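Researcher: Good morning. I'm working through a list of sequences from a screen, and I'd like to move beyond sequence-only analysis. For each chain I'm collecting a predicted structure so we can compare shapes side by side. This is the next one on the list. No need for commentary yet; just the structure.
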Amino acid sequence: MRTLIKIIVILAVLGGLGYLGFTKGSQWLAERNKPRFRIAKLETGDLRLTVNASGEIKPVLSVKIGSFVSGPILKLHVDFNDEVVKDQLLAEIDPRIYDAAVGRDNAALLTRKADLARVKAELQRAINDEKRSLALKAENADYIAQQELDQYRFARESLEAQVSVAEAGIQQAQANLETSQANVNYTKITSPVDGMVIDRKIDPGQTLAASFQTPELFVIAPELRKKVHIFASVDEADIGLIKNAKEAGQPVFFTVDAYPGQIFDEGYIEQIRLSSTVTQSVVTYPVIVASENAELKLLPGMTAQITFQVSELKDVLKIPNAALRFPPEKTHVRDQDQKYLELSFSTETEASDKATSSQEPPVDDAAKAAVAATKRIVWVQETAEEAGRKGPVDPLNPYSGKLKAVEVTIGDSDYRFTHVLSGSLKAGEEVVVGLKPAGAP
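Model: Good morning. C-alpha coordinates for this chain:
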Protein backbone atom coordinates (compact mmCIF):
# COMPACT_ATOMS: atom_id res chain seq x y z
CA MET A 1 0.00 0.00 0.00
CA ARG A 2 2.78 2.33 0.92
CA THR A 3 4.51 1.48 -2.33
CA LEU A 4 1.39 2.40 -4.30
CA ILE A 5 1.11 5.69 -2.46
CA LYS A 6 4.76 6.47 -3.18
CA ILE A 7 4.25 5.69 -6.85
CA ILE A 8 1.15 7.92 -6.98
CA VAL A 9 2.99 10.79 -5.27
CA ILE A 10 5.96 10.43 -7.60
CA LEU A 11 3.69 10.40 -10.65
CA ALA A 12 1.82 13.42 -9.33
CA VAL A 13 5.05 15.32 -8.79
CA LEU A 14 6.33 14.36 -12.23
CA GLY A 15 3.01 15.31 -13.78
CA GLY A 16 3.06 18.68 -12.02
CA LEU A 17 6.61 19.29 -13.11
CA GLY A 18 5.73 18.25 -16.64
CA TYR A 19 2.68 20.53 -16.71
CA LEU A 20 4.68 23.40 -15.29
CA GLY A 21 7.46 22.79 -17.81
CA PHE A 22 5.00 22.52 -20.68
CA THR A 23 3.25 25.73 -19.63
CA LYS A 24 6.47 27.65 -19.22
CA GLY A 25 7.85 26.19 -22.46
CA SER A 26 4.72 27.13 -24.34
CA GLN A 27 4.90 30.65 -22.94
CA TRP A 28 8.58 30.86 -23.86
CA LEU A 29 7.94 29.61 -27.39
CA ALA A 30 5.00 31.94 -27.77
CA GLU A 31 7.06 34.85 -26.54
CA ARG A 32 9.99 33.84 -28.77
CA ASN A 33 7.79 33.50 -31.85
CA LYS A 34 5.83 36.68 -31.20
CA PRO A 35 6.49 39.14 -34.07
CA ARG A 36 8.95 41.93 -33.39
CA PHE A 37 8.05 45.15 -35.14
CA ARG A 38 10.30 47.99 -36.16
CA ILE A 39 8.85 51.20 -34.84
CA ALA A 40 9.36 54.94 -35.29
CA LYS A 41 8.07 57.92 -33.39
CA LEU A 42 5.98 60.74 -34.73
CA GLU A 43 7.76 64.04 -34.32
CA THR A 44 7.13 67.73 -34.73
CA GLY A 45 9.39 69.78 -36.96
CA ASP A 46 9.87 71.47 -40.32
CA LEU A 47 8.94 69.84 -43.62
CA ARG A 48 10.19 70.87 -47.06
CA LEU A 49 8.37 69.94 -50.25
CA THR A 50 10.95 69.69 -53.04
CA VAL A 51 11.40 68.62 -56.65
CA ASN A 52 14.73 67.19 -57.82
CA ALA A 53 16.24 67.46 -61.28
CA SER A 54 19.59 67.60 -63.02
CA GLY A 55 20.82 70.24 -65.41
CA GLU A 56 23.75 71.65 -67.35
CA ILE A 57 25.49 74.91 -66.52
CA LYS A 58 25.71 77.32 -69.44
CA PRO A 59 26.68 80.98 -69.86
CA VAL A 60 23.82 83.46 -69.92
CA LEU A 61 24.91 84.33 -73.46
CA SER A 62 27.48 82.73 -75.79
CA VAL A 63 28.69 85.12 -78.49
CA LYS A 64 30.18 83.24 -81.43
CA ILE A 65 32.69 85.30 -83.40
CA GLY A 66 33.42 84.38 -87.00
CA SER A 67 35.26 85.76 -90.01
CA PHE A 68 33.73 87.48 -93.03
CA VAL A 69 36.89 87.22 -95.15
CA SER A 70 39.24 84.39 -96.01
CA GLY A 71 42.96 84.08 -95.57
CA PRO A 72 45.70 82.76 -93.29
CA ILE A 73 45.75 83.75 -89.60
CA LEU A 74 48.59 86.23 -89.15
CA LYS A 75 48.42 86.85 -85.37
CA LEU A 76 46.43 85.73 -82.34
CA HIS A 77 46.13 88.24 -79.53
CA VAL A 78 44.01 86.25 -77.02
CA ASP A 79 43.85 82.71 -75.70
CA PHE A 80 41.47 80.49 -73.72
CA ASN A 81 40.05 82.04 -70.52
CA ASP A 82 41.29 85.54 -71.38
CA GLU A 83 38.97 88.34 -70.34
CA VAL A 84 38.39 90.85 -73.13
CA VAL A 85 36.61 94.17 -73.54
CA LYS A 86 34.45 95.46 -76.36
CA ASP A 87 36.35 96.28 -79.58
CA GLN A 88 39.54 94.58 -78.33
CA LEU A 89 41.65 93.04 -81.12
CA LEU A 90 41.44 89.24 -80.98
CA ALA A 91 43.15 88.08 -84.17
CA GLU A 92 44.49 89.33 -87.50
CA ILE A 93 44.10 87.79 -90.95
CA ASP A 94 46.82 88.41 -93.56
CA PRO A 95 45.57 91.60 -95.28
CA ARG A 96 47.90 91.72 -98.30
CA ILE A 97 45.39 90.72 -100.96
CA TYR A 98 42.82 93.08 -99.46
CA ASP A 99 45.34 95.95 -99.32
CA ALA A 100 46.07 95.29 -102.99
CA ALA A 101 42.36 95.42 -103.74
CA VAL A 102 42.18 98.81 -102.02
CA GLY A 103 45.02 100.09 -104.20
CA ARG A 104 43.35 98.75 -107.34
CA ASP A 105 39.97 100.30 -106.51
CA ASN A 106 41.57 103.58 -105.51
CA ALA A 107 43.30 103.74 -108.91
CA ALA A 108 40.01 102.92 -110.61
CA LEU A 109 38.37 105.78 -108.71
CA LEU A 110 41.06 108.22 -109.82
CA THR A 111 40.63 107.06 -113.42
CA ARG A 112 36.89 107.64 -113.21
CA LYS A 113 37.41 111.13 -111.82
CA ALA A 114 39.89 111.98 -114.58
CA ASP A 115 37.45 110.70 -117.20
CA LEU A 116 34.74 112.90 -115.68
CA ALA A 117 37.03 115.92 -115.95
CA ARG A 118 37.74 115.09 -119.64
CA VAL A 119 34.05 114.73 -120.48
CA LYS A 120 33.22 117.97 -118.73
CA ALA A 121 35.91 119.79 -120.76
CA GLU A 122 34.50 118.40 -124.01
CA LEU A 123 31.03 119.37 -122.84
CA GLN A 124 32.14 122.92 -122.21
CA ARG A 125 33.64 123.09 -125.72
CA ALA A 126 30.40 121.78 -127.18
CA ILE A 127 28.43 124.39 -125.24
CA ASN A 128 30.68 127.15 -126.53
CA ASP A 129 30.36 125.88 -130.15
CA GLU A 130 26.59 125.82 -129.83
CA LYS A 131 26.51 129.35 -128.45
CA ARG A 132 28.66 130.69 -131.33
CA SER A 133 26.47 128.98 -133.92
CA LEU A 134 23.35 130.47 -132.38
CA ALA A 135 24.95 133.91 -132.39
CA LEU A 136 25.74 133.60 -136.12
CA LYS A 137 22.22 132.43 -136.79
CA ALA A 138 20.86 135.42 -134.95
CA GLU A 139 23.13 137.80 -136.92
CA ASN A 140 22.19 136.35 -140.32
CA ALA A 141 20.17 133.27 -140.97
CA ASP A 142 22.19 132.52 -144.09
CA TYR A 143 25.51 132.30 -142.22
CA ILE A 144 24.80 128.77 -140.86
CA ALA A 145 22.50 125.95 -141.86
CA GLN A 146 19.93 124.39 -139.54
CA GLN A 147 21.64 121.00 -139.94
CA GLU A 148 24.84 122.39 -138.41
CA LEU A 149 22.87 123.84 -135.48
CA ASP A 150 21.38 120.39 -134.84
CA GLN A 151 24.85 118.83 -134.83
CA TYR A 152 26.08 121.29 -132.17
CA ARG A 153 22.99 120.74 -130.04
CA PHE A 154 23.13 116.94 -130.24
CA ALA A 155 26.86 116.95 -129.52
CA ARG A 156 26.20 118.96 -126.32
CA GLU A 157 23.38 116.64 -125.21
CA SER A 158 25.57 113.56 -125.86
CA LEU A 159 28.37 114.97 -123.72
CA GLU A 160 25.90 115.86 -120.95
CA ALA A 161 24.83 112.20 -120.92
CA GLN A 162 28.48 111.12 -120.84
CA VAL A 163 28.98 113.35 -117.78
CA SER A 164 26.15 111.49 -116.02
CA VAL A 165 27.75 108.16 -117.00
CA ALA A 166 31.12 109.32 -115.70
CA GLU A 167 29.60 110.49 -112.40
CA ALA A 168 27.86 107.08 -111.98
CA GLY A 169 31.19 105.40 -112.71
CA ILE A 170 32.77 107.43 -109.92
CA GLN A 171 30.05 106.31 -107.50
CA GLN A 172 30.60 102.70 -108.52
CA ALA A 173 34.35 103.01 -108.11
CA GLN A 174 33.83 104.67 -104.70
CA ALA A 175 31.57 101.80 -103.60
CA ASN A 176 34.17 99.24 -104.75
CA LEU A 177 36.85 101.11 -102.81
CA GLU A 178 34.69 101.18 -99.66
CA THR A 179 34.05 97.43 -100.03
CA SER A 180 37.77 96.75 -100.29
CA GLN A 181 38.48 98.99 -97.31
CA ALA A 182 35.78 97.16 -95.32
CA ASN A 183 37.41 93.83 -96.22
CA VAL A 184 40.71 95.19 -94.91
CA ASN A 185 38.95 96.12 -91.67
CA TYR A 186 37.43 92.64 -91.52
CA THR A 187 40.93 91.17 -91.38
CA LYS A 188 41.11 92.51 -87.82
CA ILE A 189 38.84 90.34 -85.64
CA THR A 190 37.55 92.33 -82.64
CA SER A 191 35.27 91.48 -79.73
CA PRO A 192 31.71 92.86 -79.94
CA VAL A 193 31.17 92.52 -76.14
CA ASP A 194 32.95 92.45 -72.81
CA GLY A 195 33.44 88.88 -71.63
CA MET A 196 35.65 85.83 -71.31
CA VAL A 197 37.01 83.66 -74.10
CA ILE A 198 35.59 80.20 -73.36
CA ASP A 199 36.61 78.65 -76.67
CA ARG A 200 39.25 79.32 -79.34
CA LYS A 201 38.95 77.33 -82.53
CA ILE A 202 41.85 78.67 -84.60
CA ASP A 203 45.65 78.53 -84.50
CA PRO A 204 48.31 80.83 -85.98
CA GLY A 205 48.96 80.02 -89.63
CA GLN A 206 45.60 78.35 -90.12
CA THR A 207 43.85 79.36 -93.35
CA LEU A 208 40.21 80.44 -93.17
CA ALA A 209 37.81 79.78 -96.02
CA ALA A 210 34.75 82.00 -95.65
CA SER A 211 33.36 81.45 -99.16
CA PHE A 212 30.41 79.19 -98.28
CA GLN A 213 30.11 79.28 -94.49
CA THR A 214 31.35 81.73 -91.88
CA PRO A 215 34.09 79.98 -89.89
CA GLU A 216 33.75 80.17 -86.09
CA LEU A 217 36.88 81.57 -84.46
CA PHE A 218 36.03 82.38 -80.83
CA VAL A 219 33.21 81.92 -78.33
CA ILE A 220 32.93 84.68 -75.73
CA ALA A 221 30.73 84.53 -72.65
CA PRO A 222 29.72 87.98 -71.42
CA GLU A 223 29.43 88.53 -67.66
CA LEU A 224 30.45 84.97 -66.79
CA ARG A 225 31.59 86.18 -63.38
CA LYS A 226 28.23 87.81 -62.74
CA LYS A 227 25.67 85.11 -63.52
CA VAL A 228 25.26 81.69 -65.12
CA HIS A 229 22.24 79.67 -66.19
CA ILE A 230 21.43 76.07 -65.33
CA PHE A 231 19.20 74.35 -67.89
CA ALA A 232 17.10 71.73 -66.09
CA SER A 233 14.50 69.35 -67.58
CA VAL A 234 11.47 68.99 -65.31
CA ASP A 235 8.76 66.35 -65.72
CA GLU A 236 5.31 67.64 -66.67
CA ALA A 237 3.88 66.22 -63.44
CA ASP A 238 6.09 68.60 -61.44
CA ILE A 239 5.91 71.71 -63.60
CA GLY A 240 2.89 73.05 -61.68
CA LEU A 241 4.87 72.85 -58.44
CA ILE A 242 7.80 74.61 -60.13
CA LYS A 243 5.48 77.41 -61.28
CA ASN A 244 4.17 77.86 -57.73
CA ALA A 245 7.74 77.93 -56.42
CA LYS A 246 8.69 80.63 -58.95
CA GLU A 247 5.70 82.78 -58.01
CA ALA A 248 6.52 82.38 -54.31
CA GLY A 249 10.19 83.21 -54.85
CA GLN A 250 11.36 79.92 -53.34
CA PRO A 251 15.13 79.24 -53.39
CA VAL A 252 16.90 76.64 -55.50
CA PHE A 253 19.76 74.54 -54.14
CA PHE A 254 22.26 72.61 -56.24
CA THR A 255 25.60 70.86 -56.15
CA VAL A 256 28.26 70.10 -58.74
CA ASP A 257 30.70 67.21 -58.85
CA ALA A 258 33.67 69.57 -58.79
CA TYR A 259 32.76 70.69 -55.24
CA PRO A 260 30.97 67.71 -53.66
CA GLY A 261 30.92 69.22 -50.17
CA GLN A 262 29.52 72.60 -51.18
CA ILE A 263 25.85 73.50 -51.53
CA PHE A 264 25.12 76.44 -53.80
CA ASP A 265 22.07 78.18 -52.34
CA GLU A 266 21.93 81.41 -54.35
CA GLY A 267 19.92 80.01 -57.25
CA TYR A 268 16.46 81.14 -58.29
CA ILE A 269 14.01 80.19 -61.03
CA GLU A 270 14.38 82.72 -63.83
CA GLN A 271 12.24 81.18 -66.55
CA ILE A 272 9.92 78.25 -67.29
CA ARG A 273 10.00 77.74 -71.04
CA LEU A 274 7.03 76.45 -73.02
CA SER A 275 9.11 74.45 -75.52
CA SER A 276 8.37 70.93 -74.31
CA THR A 277 10.43 67.87 -75.21
CA VAL A 278 9.05 64.34 -75.54
CA THR A 279 11.46 61.47 -74.85
CA GLN A 280 10.05 57.93 -74.77
CA SER A 281 6.54 59.32 -74.07
CA VAL A 282 7.86 61.42 -71.17
CA VAL A 283 7.14 65.14 -71.50
CA THR A 284 9.63 67.54 -69.91
CA TYR A 285 9.93 71.32 -69.87
CA PRO A 286 13.15 73.36 -69.69
CA VAL A 287 13.46 75.37 -66.49
CA ILE A 288 16.17 78.03 -66.37
CA VAL A 289 17.84 78.54 -62.99
CA ALA A 290 20.07 81.58 -62.51
CA SER A 291 22.91 81.74 -60.01
CA GLU A 292 25.70 84.12 -59.10
CA ASN A 293 29.24 83.13 -60.11
CA ALA A 294 31.53 85.74 -58.57
CA GLU A 295 34.24 83.17 -57.72
CA LEU A 296 33.99 81.53 -61.16
CA LYS A 297 33.45 78.09 -59.63
CA LEU A 298 30.57 77.28 -61.96
CA LEU A 299 32.02 76.52 -65.39
CA PRO A 300 30.14 75.96 -68.66
CA GLY A 301 29.30 72.30 -69.23
CA MET A 302 29.21 71.23 -65.56
CA THR A 303 26.36 68.96 -64.46
CA ALA A 304 24.34 70.25 -61.52
CA GLN A 305 22.07 68.23 -59.22
CA ILE A 306 19.21 70.58 -58.45
CA THR A 307 16.61 70.72 -55.68
CA PHE A 308 13.69 73.11 -56.18
CA GLN A 309 12.11 74.08 -52.87
CA VAL A 310 8.37 74.24 -53.53
CA SER A 311 7.18 75.05 -50.00
CA GLU A 312 8.36 74.86 -46.40
CA LEU A 313 6.09 73.95 -43.46
CA LYS A 314 7.12 74.99 -39.99
CA ASP A 315 6.51 73.06 -36.75
CA VAL A 316 4.13 70.41 -38.11
CA LEU A 317 3.43 66.82 -37.06
CA LYS A 318 5.42 64.42 -39.25
CA ILE A 319 5.09 60.69 -39.78
CA PRO A 320 7.79 58.53 -41.42
CA ASN A 321 6.92 57.54 -44.99
CA ALA A 322 7.81 53.93 -44.18
CA ALA A 323 4.82 53.79 -41.80
CA LEU A 324 2.46 54.67 -44.67
CA ARG A 325 3.96 51.98 -46.91
CA PHE A 326 4.08 49.14 -44.34
CA PRO A 327 1.78 46.22 -45.35
CA PRO A 328 1.15 43.99 -42.28
CA GLU A 329 0.40 40.30 -42.51
CA LYS A 330 -3.13 39.28 -41.77
CA THR A 331 -2.08 37.10 -38.82
CA HIS A 332 -0.47 40.13 -37.17
CA VAL A 333 -3.62 42.28 -37.23
CA ARG A 334 -6.29 42.05 -34.58
CA ASP A 335 -9.65 40.70 -35.68
CA GLN A 336 -11.64 43.92 -35.57
CA ASP A 337 -9.17 45.63 -37.94
CA GLN A 338 -9.07 42.88 -40.56
CA LYS A 339 -11.50 44.92 -42.67
CA TYR A 340 -8.84 47.53 -43.40
CA LEU A 341 -6.63 44.86 -44.93
CA GLU A 342 -9.46 43.50 -47.06
CA LEU A 343 -10.40 46.98 -48.25
CA SER A 344 -6.81 47.74 -49.22
CA PHE A 345 -6.44 44.40 -51.01
CA SER A 346 -9.65 44.78 -53.03
CA THR A 347 -8.69 48.30 -54.14
CA GLU A 348 -5.29 47.17 -55.38
CA THR A 349 -6.83 44.20 -57.18
CA GLU A 350 -9.38 46.35 -59.00
CA ALA A 351 -6.70 48.79 -60.08
CA SER A 352 -4.50 46.01 -61.43
CA ASP A 353 -7.35 44.38 -63.34
CA LYS A 354 -8.00 47.41 -65.57
CA ALA A 355 -7.35 46.47 -69.16
CA THR A 356 -8.95 49.11 -71.34
CA SER A 357 -9.61 52.82 -71.13
CA SER A 358 -13.36 52.16 -70.96
CA GLN A 359 -12.81 50.45 -67.61
CA GLU A 360 -10.92 53.38 -66.16
CA PRO A 361 -12.79 55.85 -63.95
CA PRO A 362 -13.77 59.29 -65.29
CA VAL A 363 -11.25 62.02 -64.64
CA ASP A 364 -13.56 63.79 -62.19
CA ASP A 365 -13.96 60.59 -60.18
CA ALA A 366 -10.21 60.03 -60.33
CA ALA A 367 -9.66 63.53 -58.96
CA LYS A 368 -12.07 62.82 -56.10
CA ALA A 369 -10.27 59.55 -55.47
CA ALA A 370 -6.98 61.42 -55.25
CA VAL A 371 -8.47 63.63 -52.55
CA ALA A 372 -9.83 60.57 -50.74
CA ALA A 373 -6.38 59.00 -50.91
CA THR A 374 -5.19 61.53 -48.36
CA LYS A 375 -6.95 59.42 -45.73
CA ARG A 376 -4.55 56.63 -44.87
CA ILE A 377 -4.21 53.77 -42.39
CA VAL A 378 -1.14 53.36 -40.23
CA TRP A 379 -0.47 50.58 -37.76
CA VAL A 380 0.42 50.72 -34.08
CA GLN A 381 1.03 47.93 -31.59
CA GLU A 382 -1.97 46.88 -29.52
CA THR A 383 -1.30 46.86 -25.81
CA ALA A 384 -2.12 43.90 -23.58
CA GLU A 385 -4.66 46.09 -21.78
CA GLU A 386 -6.43 46.92 -25.06
CA ALA A 387 -6.49 43.22 -25.90
CA GLY A 388 -8.19 42.48 -22.53
CA ARG A 389 -5.40 40.24 -21.32
CA LYS A 390 -5.67 39.28 -17.64
CA GLY A 391 -2.78 39.16 -15.24
CA PRO A 392 0.38 41.20 -14.80
CA VAL A 393 1.85 43.04 -17.75
CA ASP A 394 5.56 43.04 -18.54
CA PRO A 395 6.59 46.72 -18.30
CA LEU A 396 9.38 46.12 -20.82
CA ASN A 397 6.99 44.61 -23.39
CA PRO A 398 3.40 45.71 -22.70
CA TYR A 399 2.08 44.77 -26.13
CA SER A 400 -0.23 41.93 -27.15
CA GLY A 401 1.70 41.09 -30.36
CA LYS A 402 -1.12 42.32 -32.57
CA LEU A 403 -1.49 45.49 -34.62
CA LYS A 404 -4.37 47.92 -34.62
CA ALA A 405 -5.29 50.39 -37.36
CA VAL A 406 -5.28 54.14 -36.91
CA GLU A 407 -6.70 56.49 -39.54
CA VAL A 408 -4.82 59.69 -40.38
CA THR A 409 -5.21 62.42 -43.00
CA ILE A 410 -1.95 63.32 -44.72
CA GLY A 411 -0.70 66.30 -46.69
CA ASP A 412 2.58 67.20 -48.33
CA SER A 413 5.51 64.81 -48.24
CA ASP A 414 9.27 64.83 -48.69
CA TYR A 415 11.68 61.95 -49.13
CA ARG A 416 11.45 60.92 -45.42
CA PHE A 417 8.35 62.32 -43.76
CA THR A 418 4.74 63.23 -44.50
CA HIS A 419 2.67 65.97 -42.90
CA VAL A 420 -0.15 64.64 -40.69
CA LEU A 421 -3.13 66.95 -41.09
CA SER A 422 -5.49 65.22 -38.69
CA GLY A 423 -5.92 62.01 -36.71
CA SER A 424 -5.71 60.69 -33.18
CA LEU A 425 -1.93 60.27 -33.18
CA LYS A 426 0.24 62.74 -31.31
CA ALA A 427 3.90 63.64 -31.32
CA GLY A 428 6.01 61.00 -29.56
CA GLU A 429 3.64 58.10 -30.28
CA GLU A 430 5.09 55.03 -31.99
CA VAL A 431 3.98 53.63 -35.34
CA VAL A 432 5.07 50.43 -37.04
CA VAL A 433 7.36 50.81 -40.05
CA GLY A 434 8.45 47.21 -40.61
CA LEU A 435 9.00 43.74 -39.24
CA LYS A 436 12.22 42.65 -37.57
CA PRO A 437 13.93 39.44 -38.71
CA ALA A 438 13.22 36.29 -36.71
CA GLY A 439 15.35 36.07 -33.58
CA ALA A 440 16.05 39.80 -33.50
CA PRO A 441 15.76 41.46 -30.08
